[in-house]
Amino acid sequence: MNNDRIQQLLRFVQEQPEDPFNVYALAMEYRGEDPGQALHYFEKLLTEHPGYLATYYHAAELYEEMGDRPKASMLYQRGLELARDQQNQKTFDELNRAYRRFLDEED
């Protein structure tokens, strides 16, 4: 986790709150070392920018790692629907593979 980068991203979020990429980048920066803080920013994205497709894969994966399988499943499904609606085949395929792996782990 790079504190300088985090401070820069926090400034970007304050200066451009309408830009979901800055919040996403902040969540990803926290992802490895502070999952709780990453989750905070993923939730912010899901609430304030629900159409930001990149959020769903990583948020679902984080919820899965934290043991909240129902929330992870819901996010994978919602991401698949959004990818289909946005006609984003590449992201749909990535989410679909991750979701199938997730379901296989239940068996």
Describe this structure in words.
The chain is mostly helical. It has six helices and no strands. Helix 3 runs antiparallel to helix 4 (54-65) and helix 5 (69-85) packs antiparallel against helix 6. The radius of gyration is 14 Å and the shape is globular. The protein starts with a helix and ends with a helix.
Percent range for helical residues?
over 70%
The total number of structural domains is 2
Give the number of DSSP strands: 0
Amino- and carboxy-terminal Cα gap:
35 Å
Uncertain runs are: none
**Average of per-residue pLDDT values:** 94
Order of helices and strands: HHHHHH
Most strands sheet: none
Structure classification: mainly alpha
Radius of gyration: 14 Å
Name the assembly state: single chain
Give the percentage of residues in beta strands.
under 5%
Count the DSSP helices: 6
Shape: globular
